[in-house]
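re: ur question from yesterday

yeah so i grabbed the chain u mentioned. its 185 aa long if i counted rite. heres the sequnce exactly as i have it in my notes:
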Amino acid sequence: MDRLHTQLSRFEDAFPGFRTEIVEGSVVACPLGPHHARTLFGAWKALAPQLGRQWAVVSDVVVPFDEDNEFCPDLAVIPAPDANRNELAYPPELVELVVEVVSGGSVRRDYEVKPRWYAARGIADYLILDPLKGHCVTMWNPGPEGYRGRDTVAYGPEAVVDSTLGRLRLATADFPVDAKRPPQP
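ran it thru and got these structure tokens back, copy pasting raw so excuse formatting
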């Protein structure tokens, strides 16, 4: 894990204001805009109080899979004692839930690439918050080829994630939707 984190750490200072990951062998730097930050903050604020003391929400940490895939999920839920160690990287085996916020450049990665990796490593639940489409996608029941369960809920009503952490509720009515983008099916 240290070797993988070292690969990514070479690029962290080169792209200030960007989230940097290694995906399918390529270094990917994504700008983080206001919609991304507002969605991320809303999700963190909603999820953290529902988890209890044994779990913690973390952000901007590395989850290495192999030398070609080293993700930095927008949010991840890991055991609180591990979060309290304040590491820069955590193995995927510690992650129980991942939340990704979609940006214009991350659509394929968030919907296709990452679910395969997260599910194959047994991360129980994956939540995609999409300001471009104005909906959230919950995925569960991980398997070697991806998640076998999937629901899509338009922003507005409460999204419910029946997770291994319990029933998590996420108010989506105030999540921003990118008005510059045409509605997506």
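noticed a couple things. Helices lie at 2-12, 34-47, 80-83, 107-120. also The first strand starts at residue 18 and ends at 23.
anyway ttyl
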